[in-house]
Design goal:
The chain has 89 residues and is an all-alpha fold. The chain has one domain. It is 55% helix and 0% strand.
């Protein structure tokens, strides 16, 4: 099995994804409804796959990336996301 690889060009900037989630939350606050669960998927997956790179040695980094993205996704869902919350760029 070949390791997964991702080029940075193929992955949407995570910052943009969280900004979009926050904007969607604001829209649904005004118009009713909620953000579909699927909207959070890419914002969680991309940074984790970039950290992991299919290598066992990178599992801890990937886990850390997942926890950080989950925290930021939650903030975006609740309308608390701000770019200053990003720990690494």
């Amino acid at each position: 099995m070949e390791p997964l690889s991702s080029s940075s060009a193929a992955i949407t900037d995570t910052f943009d994804q969280h900004e979009e989630l926050d904007a969607a939350r604001a829209f649904f606050d005004v118009h009713g409804g909620s953000i579909p669960l699927s909207a959070f998927g890419r914002a969680l997956q991309d940074p984790v796959l970039l950290a992991w790179k299919g290598q066992a040695a990178n599992v801890r980094s990937a886990q850390d990336a997942l926890l950080e993205r989950a925290r930021l996704n939650g903030a975006a869902r609740d309308g608390r996301y701000d770019a200053s919350m990003e720990t690494a760029r």
